[in-house]
Amino acid sequence: MKKLSLFVFLMMVSVLLVACGNDKEEGNASNAATGDSKTTETAKKETTKPVEVEFWHAMNGDHEKWLEDAAVKFSEENENITVKLVNQGSYNDLSQKLLAAAKAKTSPTIAQAYAEWMTEYNANNLVVDLAPMINAENGFPADASYEDISEVFRNDNTFGDKVLGLPFNKSTRVLFYNKDYFEANGLTAPTTWDELAAAATTLTKEIDGKKVVGMGFENGLAHEISMWFEQAGGDFVDEKEGKVLFNTDAGLRALTFINTMLKDGSARMAGEDGYLSGPFTRGDVAMYIGSSAGLAYVAKDAGDMNWSTTPLPKDVEAAAPFQGTNITMFANSTEAEQAAAFEFMKYLITPENTVDWAKATGYLPVRESAQQGKDWLSFIEEYEAYQAGNAQYADGFIDVRLPGSYAMKNAISVELDKMLFEGATPAETLEAMSKKAQEALDQAK
């Protein structure tokens, strides 16, 4: 990958962010960026004096409250470390401010970041390789090892031989469904595309005086289209080669499946509702695919509706996208700040904390021991809707992390909308999507 000038990088990503609506001491920067960090044991000596870790994030509401409480508890247990939380608004706001801070050399110690952002930061030597800290003798405790982090999340943070972050708020897509509607019509939760389509057809009718549509697709369908291609037995993008792979029979099958339900009226887009959680909790839509992080929002609005979630129905293969941000460390921080920040990053994903976070927010535990531990299993046994996400780790995959990923998704969205709203055929759409997506990736090389 060619190294971008910082100016070109900043300009390029700033433009791409418009399309992405469905996120000190300079002398240490060079050594940190190339991974020449102290071992954890040695670096811990840097925290014997008071040090502040500045953490930029985009958490709000109950999510921010949990983070604030965690920061206070951490500081109480680590009296020389203060964590300064800075809420930067939305993810778009956060990304724009991180770019501006990088240009001004005023980056925070750590920040939430999607893997696509980290790709660009790494190309410009803006972030720290955590591998030396992780691999140090005392990098991670034995009862909460690095290898205990789910492979899908470790992969999301691994770039060649570098580790550029640790996972934080992670979610997957699940199928939300109205159990009352299903049971009244003798249906069970669908496990395949064929069952999904059949249930959507059966449930598209008037129920209890209400006009119901069987299936719903979120407006940001372009940002989860890789899921449909993977389930149809195809591939999305070769990340190593930067080559689009979805213009195949599998890709055509996926688009045709979606388009057929929309055309026959058994499915709808979110449209003016913005998100499908609203139509779902009103009973206007019988089922929809959405983020597991939306569980708390559905529960809040569902009232006495009998609802749940189920793993994503499969076609040729089971495939579940795992999404969400990581925490990355910026290279213009001091060694003392980096050592302290690494301790806080690990603290956020201890087995106890990652379960507590998942319970409070609807995100998923990032550790295998936590996912299979008594505390979490007891919780999801009581709250059935959380079980679907826990069942999908083995089928999980991560999003494309190439430079130009935002532009690629925007290009796909433009062409996909022509099928969703303007009558373009699936074949026409697939060809145009493939061409425009490849152009976007090539321009970013």
Automatic annotation (TrEMBL):
<feature type="signal peptide">
    <location>
        <begin position="1"/>
        <end position="19"/>
    </location>
</feature>
<keyword id="KW-0813">Transport</keyword>
<feature type="compositionally biased region" description="Basic and acidic residues">
    <location>
        <begin position="38"/>
        <end position="48"/>
    </location>
</feature>
<comment type="similarity">
    <text>Belongs to the bacterial solute-binding protein 1 family.</text>
</comment>
<dbReference type="InterPro" id="IPR050490">
    <property type="entry name" value="Bact_solute-bd_prot1"/>
</dbReference>
<keyword id="KW-0732">Signal</keyword>
<protein>
    <submittedName>
        <fullName>ABC transporter substrate-binding protein</fullName>
    </submittedName>
</protein>
<dbReference type="InterPro" id="IPR006059">
    <property type="entry name" value="SBP"/>
</dbReference>
<dbReference type="Pfam" id="PF13416">
    <property type="entry name" value="SBP_bac_8"/>
</dbReference>
<feature type="compositionally biased region" description="Polar residues">
    <location>
        <begin position="28"/>
        <end position="37"/>
    </location>
</feature>
<dbReference type="GO" id="GO:0030313">
    <property type="term" value="C:cell envelope"/>
</dbReference>
<feature type="region of interest" description="Disordered">
    <location>
        <begin position="26"/>
        <end position="48"/>
    </location>
</feature>
